[in-house]
Amino acid sequence: MADETNNAEAVAETPIAAEHPQSIEAPVEVREPRGGNRGGGGGGGQRGRGGPGGGNDRNRGGRGGNDRNRGRGGDDDGGEELIEKLVHINRVSKTVKGGKRFGFAALVVVGDGKGRAGFGKGKAREVPEAITKATAAAKRAMVRVPLKEGRTLHHDGKGRFGAGKVNLRTAPAGTGIIAGGPMRAVFESLGVADVVTKSVGSSNPYNMIRATFDALTEQTSPKSVAQRRGKKVADLLGRGGASVAEAEAAADAITE
To answer: Which of 24, 59, 70, 106 is placed for a possible disulfide with 134 were both Cys, Cβ 3.0 to 4.6 Å?
Structure first.
């Protein structure tokens, strides 16, 4: 005990001890490292950026995404680009106590330009929300229409819905889309380049769109007819007076 007391007094008399008396008398506090505060692997914490198991609220490392982006993995349409056409917007108003309350209805046609198209309608208090609802409904209601050479219809057709009546006719190359209003939007989205149409009856865009799709859904291709009848495509095409070689060449040219 006497030796330890003498050593303590000797240290206290040194110049360093005289200048910093607390460095000897005060005990040194050792802080334990925080588990996941600045990037420990696998540990939890408020700001654990480093480890795969830790993460804050904005970046949940184990779940693979934050609250705004939960790793959905892709769009609903499979990443393909769709052609969207806004056909009509209708505004309605309701008189309530204190003024008028407005609502909007949108009619949208979508297609991939390769033989698939659909239409949908949506209602909301704001125009953008109504268009978004109509677009989503149109994507869910897409149908496939067979096209001749990828540019026109295989045969003429008629469609009807309510008081709306439409006539569709196939056309040679270079004719263009002879249609107006809502019907033009349908053929542009569908990918038809040559067609002649005529609307007879109601000019209501909803009736015209539904009548047009009624005529398009009745379109059939030579391949489907031959398969249904158990024959070859060349046999069907050769019944119009064409030679066997011409019929086989026309059958080979049909892609859909």
So the answer is: 106
Residue 145 C-alpha from the chain's centroid: 21
Do residues 87 and 182 make contact, with C-beta atoms less than 8 angstroms apart? yes
What region, left, alpha or beta, does residue 25 occupy, with left being phi > 0 and alpha being psi -120 to 50 degrees? alpha
pLDDT tens digits for range 223-233: 777 777 777 77
- pLDDT surpassing 50 at residue 130: yes
Question: For the chain, which residues make up each domain, given as ranges?
Answer: 83-144, 222-253
Q: State the fold for domain 83-144.
A: Double Stranded RNA Binding Domain (3.30.160)
Give me 61's structure tokens. Answer: 């490392």
When pLDDT is averaged across residues 89-109 and rounded to a whole number, the result is 95
* 89-108 average pLDDT score: 95
Say if CB 168 and CB 195 are below 8 A apart: yes
Q: Which letter does DSSP use for residue 238 in this model?
A: G
Find residue 210's DSSP bridge partners: none
